[in-house]
Amino acid sequence: MTGDILRAEGLRKQFPGVLALDGVDLSLRAGEVHVLLGENGAGKSTLIKILSGAYHPDGGRVLMDGRPVRIRSAGDARALGIATIYQEFNLVPQLTVAENLALGRPPRRFGLVDRARMERDAAGLLARVDVRVDPRTPVGRLGIARMQMVEIAKALALEARILIMDEPTAVLTTGEVEKLFAIVRQLRDEGVSIVFITHHLEEIPQIGDRVTVLRDGRSVAEVPASTPHDELVRLMVGRPIDQQYPRKRARPGEPLLKVRGLTRRGVFADVSFEVRAGEVVGVAGLVGAGRTEVARAVFGADHYDAGEVTVNGRRVPPGDVHAAMEAGLGLVPEDRKGQGLVLGAAVAENLGLVTLRDATRAGFVDRKGQRSAAAKVAGRLGIRMAGLDQEVRTLSGGNQQKVVIGKWLVAGARVLILDEPTRGVDVGARVEIYQLVNELTAAGDAVLMISSDLPEVLGMSDRILVMARGRLVGELPAAGATQDDVMAMAVAEVEGGRVQ
Amino acid sequence: MAVSSNVLVQRRSPVALWLAENGALVALVVLVVGLSLLSSDFLSVTNLLNVGVQAAVTAILAFGSTFVIVTGGIDLSVGSVAALSAIVLAWGATPAGWPWPVATVAGLAVGVACGLVNAVLIAYGKLPPFIATLAMLGVARGLALVISQGSPIELPAQVAHLGDTIGRYLPVPVIVMVVMGVVAAVILNRTYAGRAMYAIGGNEEAARLSGIKVDRQKLITYALSGGFAAVAGIVLASRLASAQPQAATGYELDAIAAVVIGGASLSGGKGRALGTFVGALILAVLRNGLNLLSVSAFWQQVVIGVVIALAVLVDTLRRRETS
Ligand SMILES: Nc1ncnc2c1ncn2[C@@H]1O[C@H](COP(=O)(O)OP(=O)(O)OP(=O)(O)O)[C@@H](O)[C@H]1O
Ligand SMILES: [Mg+2]
């Protein structure tokens, strides 16, 4: 067929113990947004890593403008006009935003790096993606959402013909997703072809033109983006999913977690709330509203200046993770790679990390018991892996997320704080996680769920807290609330600019 | 006949996998076979026992270093701490006149204490392990010289028996090495402290957020390293029946080399006691073989340096291939 800027035919890729791609075709037209859809571990990231030269296929071929091409390295891909934003970030945390944006090809003057120009260029790129951040800030200090925007800016700098984006919206809030879509549409209108991976089905008709569905390493369908959700789910999972948010609300019991006047100068101020037994409390807000910071402070991961945290009537000392856990708190952190996982260790090890202490008798760990517990959770969450001994590093992104959640599910915390729990998780597995949340609350435990996915907050919480600029600005019952209600609260305060 | 290609590509031969996983062991076997062809003396019982005795001190030090390296740290002080521990034991027993068991406990305690000081500087003072243990390398060696006034001190006879050979074929240092190796393997594989070491080395922040008291685990890790160094120092002294303040100079580098040849990663999270044991044997076999082949001491250093680089290079290439 003519008009295809890029075609992949019969791609195969074998990893030890896993056949990641087993005959995948993809056709990409000039000036289209082509969505790749598939369950966690279906092979989406592997496919784009082949297109970007990170992996070499074991079979099949790639054609550009009808001619076979060999993409052996990132350099080859760049020369062919392919730019890629990977699911896992490729930023150097110690370097500044400007340095990251110019990585590998900094502007020079008399043979030396021209810092002034580098920072000017960076400011221009950042303005294009509409993020307000000083180009001289070290990337490691940005939150994960702004890191994603920097990644996008970095890819824009390459002026590519084909832009590949692996789950760019996973870490963004609604407002930022809108900004991203505006950029994507503009690029598309300029004739750039875009490959777009997402697990958010509602984004597909908004941004996509066509969809290629992958299942178990094969491309099973190519359909227009207007295809109904149910049909997409069926193609992807092989069966329909009846209820996306299966929340069973129960009457809340005693307060389990009480937070009073929590304050950390310059970050959040006077945050007070309660979470009751059997309750799911959602926390909504824009990125930078201070939700993650509050969660970390409550859990003892960071210090705070004033306020107090009580769990089940017990005062939790500040800055002491171990004491918080003893009191019954658990935290699934938002940054799975940096804070949630030991990437080089096996799935079994990671799943057993939180229960290590409990599985210890007289200094010795019951590793058999740990392993069988791990096997159970892995089965429950449908973690797609070669085995419990597979290194977590080599799991697909969504399956890594399942491991982070899984390790806390085995731990039996009374109050579980989930920070963006379903980031990058496919529709089927999401429902499985929600079921587990239901089980926890049915057993009288409580969940505090931070999420930038508004439908999720609305669908799974009993009550919603809204944060803006480091303060709690409102609370509303989830039943009957709409996305607009929540956004109005989150944004009003920011635009008013009264706080802090 | 009708084997699906699917199955064919999915299975790599188990032999190939095993070889890839145990590269150091393969290298050791190749080395042993090669040397036994090149030198008729190599495979004699006396010579092999000799190799075992030579490996013992390095291996014991290296087992201790394995703990530290698994957590992503490094301990440069083990050679000096070994010497200091032996000196304290000998000094306590002879000039100070303590009963020998008391002196022995004192020697071991000094090793542990040095490790604890390292850990406090690292965990609470936030010094990089390289710097903290480099300082201890100087301090412990200096103290050994101060206490001994620069000369060897005789070891109590009871302790010196550690250097003996039981019957004709069982050198005590080899027994101590095996026991310490088993202890190290059990700690690493089966205990909370060991599992915590892997987690900390793999991702310290994830370990902390999983409820592991990282600072406390580091105390245990460096204390173990110090304790193992003390044992190594005492074994070394027992072979000469006297403690030397300059003993074990530079041994920390052999220990690190053994750990790394054994497959551990200096960035943490990886390493096994068995690997370290094989690494220590490779170094000892190599030294012994080069001696038998009358290679000059100068060239020996060159060869050993090249072997260390090769071992790690092969390992890195292998890892890159499988990932
Ligand atoms: N380097 C690797 N070594 C071994 N297995 C791997 C490696 N990379 C990927 N895999 C395996 O290949 C399969 C496909 O992974 P891939 O990352 O392409 O999935 P994905 O479709 O992007 O999933 P997700 O939606 O979770 O990101 C998974 O089973 C994964 O475990
Ligand atoms: Mg992926």
UniProtKB/TrEMBL annotation, chain A:
InterPro entries: AAA+_ATPase, ABC_carbohydrate_import_ATPase, ABC_transporter-like_ATP-bd, ABC_transporter-like_CS, P-loop_NTPase. The keyword Chaperone does not apply. GO terms for molecular function: ATP binding. It comes from the Bacteria. Pfam families: ABC_tran. Residues 6-241, 251-494 form the ABC transporter domain. The keyword Transport applies. This is Ribose transport system ATP-binding protein. Keywords: ATP-binding, Nucleotide-binding, Repeat, Transport.
